[in-house]
Amino acid sequence: MLNKITPQDFYNDFAPTYDATLENSKVNACHVKEAAKIFQRHNTEIHGSLLDLGCGTGLLKDLFQEREFDYTGIDISEKMLQYASSRGYKTIHEPIEVALPKIKDQSYDFVFALSSLLCIEDINSILLHIDRIARQSILLSIDNLTEEYIRDVPVTVYNHSKVKILNAKEDYLIRGWTSPTTGITIQTRMIYIEKV
Known about the structure:
The protein has helices at about 5-15, 20-25, 30-40, 60-65, 80-85, 95-100, 125-135, 145-150, and strands spanning about 45-55, 70-75, 90-95, 110-115, 135-145, 170-180, 185-195. It is an alpha/beta fold.
């Protein structure tokens, strides 16, 4: 069995090459662009507050350049958050499961979690917090992790792809991304929920 490292160490090491990796044709990170398409299909607002869970380097802001959202990102990697901050994100440097309980009900118009919940063991409590925090809509991409990927990736991850989601307006699988670490292609469940 592979010795696992902490998610914080993994993503701190990944931060300098993260953007380039997602843009690499071998990785083919379709889930991010698919999320932007879903959101734009259902939302015409050009203003609002957006909470980005596991925000990484803040790439969402690049996808929504025509919108003037107020971005807040939560991430365990201080190096990822340095990049997000340079893009104009307000940042929260804590694990998602520590940060979310501190956030007040209906604090953000939109909550995104794009392939960022795989390191969280208790997905159901996180989903309850997301539902509590979002005012208008929620956009999730949850990865269908293979046993081989779970075994070979250097951090502890969990497959939450079968979690029950109620009242989703859209809920379907796509070819999400190919892991730059293991070379394994991951299917991603795209979920869009409207609150109003």
